[in-house]
Amino acid sequence: MSDTAATVGSSPGEIFGAILAPAGKADPYPLYAALHEIGEAAEVMPGLVVAHSYDAVNAMLRDQAFLVADAARLDQVWAGWREHPSLEADSLLNLNGADHARIRSAVAGAFTPRRVNQLTAAVEQVAGGLIAAMTEHGSAGSPVDFMAEFAYQLPVTVICELLGVPEADRAAFRPVARDLVVALEPIEDPAQLIPADAAAIWLTDYFTDLVARRRAEPQDDLLSALVVAGGLSDVELISNLILLLVAGFETTTNLLGNGLRIILTRPEVESSLRAGQVTAADFVAEVLRYDAPVQATSRWRPDPGEVGGVPVPPGAQVIALLGAANRDPRRFASPDRFDPARSDGGPLSFGAGAHFCVGAALARMEATVAFPRLLASFPRLAAAGQPVRRTGLVLRGFDQLPVSVC
Ligand code: HEM
Asked: Is residue 99 part of a domain?
């Protein structure tokens, strides 16, 4: 039994409870290791199964018998859910079957690797501008917050440019998106959703207005293309614009922050990146595996089934721990070692199957552009104070990451 399991108790329920506690969210990895010792999946309480091995999570996400919680499911399990606009029932993340496929095919074309490649020069330009601003703010040796000045700004600028959100409106999104993503975390008390609901109403009003303007006068952007193409109701369109906006930067922000933290705390990684012994693409792939920006997602199934050899009763919810699957010793040799040269790659950080992340190529490209430029521009980049971690389990990253750049 691992030390952690001995401390928190060794039953799956106790370990899962510890993962949900503040200390577990701050560092879930020893607790994931304790789960791996138990098996591939476990029922942690009646009606709630956790899948944590690579094979179990991968198989479950690819199996269409496991469904995302759509409106019909929420009606069964939560009578009052319709009072919460933050539980966007028309977004891709909450749709199954034909509705999911129809909306996904409408949006996914904008994010293919070929389309993403065409954006590389624009991303380089945005990154260059942000680095110039960081240089100016940090030139007197004062700390610069990497999260506020770069990790948030790069993805939000890119996704807003793509969607067609005017520049003047972008600054307002950070706090609103921060409030909205609480709806992705495990909800113990509906009161948790009050700020998320307010954020959803704000964003719905914002996009309702923007859709009307683009309908009247289409521009060369994704939002106008979706409006002109038709095929989505206004409610579907707006829900998915909100998803693209928020998914487009909340997660990529954390990829950039988690990666920079590794550079700041592991001199050997920094020097091999600077020397070109490790490529930016391999570094980014290993950051995604080692400290996944999205740690968990969930499914349910109406009929009896199994995951990782554990029975899933009809109606049970299954939490897929992506962050644990990426540290599964059955799949990754020495999983707790950060090793960009590893060849046992293929982490589940972007999910798998029908809901595989639409923006995976874009997120990878942004990070692959960003890190080499940051290192080349800041030869003396260093930590400049304690980072502040975000408190959620699902979205893993930092609120603040102070650095000195000169
Ligand atoms: C490092 C950055 C990112 C990570 C780690 C990430 C992770 C994920 C994961 C794990 C899922 C699957 C959820 C599930 O199966 O329940 C997902 C879905 C999704 N992601 Fe990302 N994402 C990232 C960046 C992006 C970007 C840049 C965009 C926007 C262009 C985006 C848009 C979406 C959308 C629309 C879905 C829903 C797809 C569907 O349900 O069919 N993501 N993402």
From this structure: yes
Q: How far apart are the C-alpha atoms of 112 and 345, rounded to whole Å?
A: 21
Find the 238 Cα to ligand 1 centroid distance in Å: 17
312 lines ligand 1 (CB under 6 A): no
> How many angstroms separate the alpha carbon of residue 246 from the centre of ligand 1?
10
Distance CA 117, CA 120 (A): 5
Residue 39's Cβ-count burial label (10 Å; 0-12, 13-18, 19+) is middle
Q: Which residues, in sequence order, are CB contacts of 290 under 8 Å at separation 6+? A: 262, 326, 327, 338
Q: Tell me which amino acid residue 3 is.
A: D
Residue 170 lies in a domain: yes
Averaged pLDDT, 385-400: 94
Which residue, 325, 245, 328, 261, is CA-closest to 60?
A: 325
State the Cα–Cα distance between residues 347 and 364, nearest whole angstrom. 13
Mutate to test the pocket of ligand 1, among 159, 358, 390, 396 (most ligand atoms within 8 A of CB): 358
Is residue 108 within 6 Å of ligand 1 at its C-beta? Answer: no
State which residues form the domain around 116: 79-279+348-404
| CA dist., res. 6 & res. 390, Å (int) | 27
Q: What is the pTM of this model?
A: 0.95
Which residues does 245 contact at the CB level (< 8 Å), separation at least 6?
A: 159, 160, 163, 165, 173, 177, 203
User: How many whole angstroms from 244 Cα to the centroid of ligand 1?
Assistant: 8
**What is the rounded distance in angstroms from the CA atom of residue 346 to the CA atom of residue 325?**
11
Over residues 316-357, the pLDDT tens digits come to: 999 999 999 999 999 999 999 999 999 887 999 999 999 999
**pLDDT: which is higher, 152 or 109:** 152
Closest residue by CA, ligand 1 atom 7? 350
Query: Is residue 162 assigned to a domain?
Result: yes
CATH number at residue 162: 1.10.630.10
| Total number of domains constituting the chain | 1
Query: Is 157 close to ligand 1, i.e. is its CB under 6 Å away?
Result: no
- Is 153 among the domain residues? yes
